[in-house]
Amino acid sequence: MANYWVIGGTYQDTGFDSPIGEETKVGPFGTFEDAEKEWSKLAWQSVDDANSRYRVERLDEYWVVGGEYVDTSFESPVGGSEERHGPFATFEQAEKEWSKLAWQHVDDCNYRYRVVEG
Predict the structure, then answer these.
(1) Alpha-carbon torsion 73, 79, 81, 83, what sign?
(2) Which spans in 1-118 are helix H?
(3) Which InterPro entries match (predicted)?
(4) What's the angle, vertex CA 99, arms to CA 3 and CA 111, rounded to 5?
(5) DSSP character for 41?
(6) Domains with residue ranges and CATH for the chain
(7) What is the C-alpha to C-alpha distance for residues 33 and 50, in angstroms, rounded to an integer?
(8) Model confidence over 76-98: pLDDT tens digits?
(9) 16 burial type by CB count under 10 A (0-12 exposed, 13-18 middle, 19+ buried)
(10) Which helix (H) or strand (E) holds 62?
(11) pTM score
């Protein structure tokens, strides 16, 4: 069964990269249409706020996210964005890719990868 979620909230700016507090995550919904109804409701509640945004995401797939970072705080990726590998149908498949990438960079402390859902 598909797991659709509505994710979003208010962000620092219209780049929508840095949420103010935690992002709102509503769901799961069994169909895209049901998630879209909730998305519409939340989007219309914040229609006058340029820094608010909501999106529908399907979270029954896994990605390996990460790469090289400016320093070991792992907050600023080199080049401005993280690598995304996937999607993978199972956590185990994503974990296998994560392991491969992590071992390729095991001697460089500025690299980090993680498995994320969605």
Answers:
(1) negative
(2) 32-45, 91-104
(3) DUF4170
(4) 100
(5) H
(6) 4-58 (3.30.70.2400), 62-117 (no CATH)
(7) 25
(8) 999 999 999 988 878 889 999 99
(9) middle
(10) strand 62-68
(11) 0.55
